[in-house]
Structures are given as structure tokens and as C-alpha cells.
Description:
By secondary structure, this protein is an alpha+beta fold. The longest helix is centred in the first third of the chain and has 31 residues. The protein is flat, with a radius of gyration of 20 Å. The N and C termini lie far apart (45 Å).
Amino acid sequence: MPIRVQLVFEDDTGGPPVVQEIAQLEREALSPATLGLTLAEAKTLLHSLQSHLVEQQVSAYHQRNRPALTVNLRRVKDKRQLVYRSLFGKLHLQNTRLFHCDCQPHETKSFSPLADLLTECTSPELLYLESKFAALMSYGQSANLLAEVLPVGEQLNAATVRNHT
């Protein structure tokens, strides 16, 4: 039995909904091994869901802030990726740097609205779980446990957990 998992984003302004397929699963006859999701499928599904959701959130954030940023026709300095680590994997977010307008003095010549919003590179939930598990067991065991049950990525290791704690 083929299964498709889709994510539907509805626009607040009444525009057409955006449908994105995030996973396709295949199930055979019902058995204990095919009932529900496997751990690998759940991790892949969560990571894909997180990626699509964050992509839409960042896009909506840029759309909401675009009028304020283009009042004085700000020039784009460059576009880079901002790496953000979450419980459901590492995210690569499009980060645009803009020049400040010349209408008033600024401490810096450029700024990034997304980097100003996301001042930390790791989500609070991931930091919380790292700290909680590190208080109960070793840093290495904490990293292994998180990697076992969540799609946090291969970058999580004992040193990362220790530094975050």
C-alpha cells in the first residue's frame, strides 16, 4: 500500500494553499514490523517536515519584512547560508545581508535580518535536552541517546554536548 505524506500551507491572505510532499512510504501486509512507522522512517519524516516548515517560515519572514527593508532601496551585500541546529536536524537557511541606508549613521555598514533574529545557532529545545541528559549521564551517552532517537545529525558528539552545557 503506497502512502504519501503531504504538508499544506495555507496563506493568511486567502491565496491558494501550497502543497508539498514530504515523504512516500510503502507498506506490505500488516505485521508487527510494518505497523506504524519505523524509527528510521520517523527520523526522516521529522527532518523533512522540519526542513519544509522552516523554509516556509523563513520565506514568510522575509516577505513580511521586505516592505520595511526596501523603503530606502537597500542594496544586497551578499547571500550566505546560516546553519541552525534543531532537534530534527541541521538546517541551512538562506541568509541575505543588506547594506544600511545612508539616511542615518549606523555602527556597521551591513546587517542581516535573519541573523539578527536567530542570534544562537542551536535551538532552545536541543540545548534543553542536551543539558537535561548531560545532568543524568555522561556527555557521550547523552549525544548517543539524542542521535539514536532524533534526527539531530552526525555533528552532535560529546564535546558539543559539553560545550553547550
